[in-house]
Structures are given as structure tokens and as C-alpha cells.
Design a protein that fits this description.
Strand order of the largest sheet: 1-5-6-16-15-7
Order of helices and strands: EEHHEEEEEEEHEEHEHEEHEE
Number of strands: 16
Largest sheet: 6 strands, antiparallel
Strand content: 35-45%
Distance between the termini: 15 Å
Shape: globular
Number of helices: 6
Radius of gyration: 20 Å
Length: 290
């Protein structure tokens, strides 16, 4: 296990989001499209929370934190540390500059504690509360937002299939074993995958060698991070830039227990150079009770 030496950390700009609703949300991605089905839409809950200075939101497995924000682009940065299981950088702290003076969120100088969030294996999402009401995830069933899909070939027999079908390399930071085709019409992707899988069965390979990923926001957000060392990318949802953050597969092993086993990490509003910052701090694994 690598140590988490602060001297090895660095601050990285992840991207910018805009929040016309004046409410920014940091949400677990897995159930992000389920808030309305559970009761009120996310935006209704989030705006109300922001009006009171910010709060943690939870309904069944859906979780988020919502806080007030100013107009204009909000810069999102991260501090990194060495990974828990391999020598890669991973996110230790996420900061969102809220474009607000500290006096707009607190009369005192001390941090304002908002609660905690687990690291969602499906990724974390940061953006405008109202825009996120339009988020298309993968539950209960994915749908395409643009009529397109990606097709990936992976599993037993993948190299033979790559050569036979002329699969194209798909650039990704943490692996060179991603091949297939991007941005195909859905019907083309499904027909090609079916043909590849019939071929795979006849050859004794993995029967689901080819898989189709419809262009849901969830998939596009995950894909946007493929070429980033931290797995972070920005996509557009309802006209707003939305930041999507993932973790390397090895690092996700650390977080698999989730909230039910106390793997949650603190959120707070911080006073930084006179401005309000939303901070999510993910301590090193050595600090967790096992």
C-alpha cells in the first residue's frame, strides 16, 4: 500500500461548471436520475437546501449535497495523493469555488459542516441543480440522448476479434486494451455486436464479447474521463457543463463497502481567501476503521 505523503500531493484543475439556478450539486451518479421517482425532483430539494445555506440530501440510495453559488463559471479543483493499491494519482480533496463571499454563507470564521457522502463506484457528478433534473442514467434502463452508442470488445478472445473485425483502438489513460467503435447509430451498434457475439460463440470465446453502451449521460460522463489521469471529464446536460469524476478500478476497491459500512467522507463549506468553497475531503485509507 502506498503512503499518503502530503509532500507528494498536488493541486489539479478539474474543470468549470455554471449554475444558472444559483444552486450547485455534488451528487452520487448511480441513482442521480431516480430523485423524481422517489418523490420530489432533485432541483426542488436542492434549491430548498441551498436557500438554507446548504445541506446533505439523501433518499433511499440517492445522495447529494446542495449549496448556494454565484453566477459565472465555478472552478473545480482537486488535491491528489498516491493511490491506495498502485502508483497512480487519485483524488484526495475536491474543492468547488462557489463565487460567493464567505459572508454569504456564514457569519463566523469556522468551517460549516454539511454531512458526508460515499464514493459512488458509478462516479460523482457536479453541476447545476436544475440541469441535473434532465440527467439520463443507466437505471432502470439506459436510453440514448443523441441516437448514438459505443461498441466495445473485451473478454476471452478479444485480440482475435479485434483483428477479425478491424476494431479501432479507443484512447484511455489507464489501459491500452480498449477497442471497438465510438459514436455509431444505435441500430448499427446493436447489429454489429450481435454479429460479433455469434462469431464469438462459434469460436468458443466469451459469448458477450461485444457490448453496446448507449449514449446516456452516465456513459458519456464516464467516457469523458477516459483520457484523464483522474478519470474526470465535462459533458453538457440541458445546456450546462457538468463535471463527472470517476476513480481507477483499483482505487474503487477501497470504497466498495459504502455507507452501510461507514465509508463516507466529510463535506464542508470552507473560508478560503475571503470566498466560500465547498470541500469534500477523502482521507487516506489508513485512517479508516476496518
Amino acid at each position: 500500500m502506498n503512503s499518503s505523503d502530503d509532500s507528494a500531493s498536488m493541486t489539479v484543475a478539474l474543470g468549470r461548471v455554471v449554475v444558472p439556478s444559483r444552486t450547485v450539486v455534488l451528487a452520487c451518479g448511480g441513482f442521480l436520475d431516480q430523485w423524481a421517482d422517489l418523490g420530489k425532483p432533485l432541483s426542488a430539494r436542492a434549491v430548498r437546501a441551498a436557500d438554507t445555506g446548504g445541506a446533505h440530501l439523501r433518499d433511499w440510495l440517492a445522495e447529494a449535497v446542495a449549496v448556494p453559488a454565484g453566477l459565472g463559471a465555478l472552478m473545480v479543483t482537486a488535491r491528489t495523493r498516491p493511490g491506495t493499491y498502485e502508483a497512480i494519482d487519485t483524488i484526495a480533496t475536491i474543492d468547488i469555488d462557489l463565487n460567493l463571499p464567505w459572508s454569504a454563507v456564514s457569519a463566523g470564521e469556522e468551517p460549516v459542516i454539511l454531512g458526508d457522502l460515499p464514493v459512488d463506484p458509478s462516479g460523482m457528478v457536479i453541476g447545476d441543480a436544475v440541469a441535473l433534473d434532465s440527467w439520463v442514467g443507466f437505471l432502470p434502463a439506459a436510453r440514448t440522448v443523441d441516437g448514438l452508442a459505443d461498441l466495445r470488445i473485451w473478454g476471452k478472445g478479444e485480440e482475435e476479434a479485434w483483428a477479425h473485425f478491424g476494431a479501432q483502438p479507443i484512447p484511455a489513460f489507464h489501459t491500452n486494451r480498449l477497442r471497438g467503435w465510438l459514436d455509431l447509430p444505435v441500430e448499427v451498434a446493436q447489429e454489429r455486436a450481435a454479429a460479433i457475439n455469434r462469431w464469438a460463440v462459434a469460436r468458443g470465446h466469451h459469448p458477450h464479447l461485444a457490448s453496446v453502451d448507449l449514449h446516456s449521460h452516465h456513459h458519456l460522463g464516464w467516457r469523458a474521463g477516459w483520457q484523464d489521469p483522474l478519470g474526470v471529464g465535462v459533458i453538457e446536460v440541458a445546456g450546462c457543463p457538468i463535471l463527472c469524476a470517476g476513480w481507477a478500478p483499483s482505487e474503487l476497491q477501497r470504497f466498495k463497502a459504502g455507507r452501510s459500512f461507514g465509508q463516507v467522507y466529510p463535506l464542508s463549506l470552507q473560508h478560503v481567501a475571503g470566498k466560500a468553497v465547498l470541500r469534500w475531503n477523502i482521507p487516506p485509507a489508513a485512517t479508516e476503521v476496518r
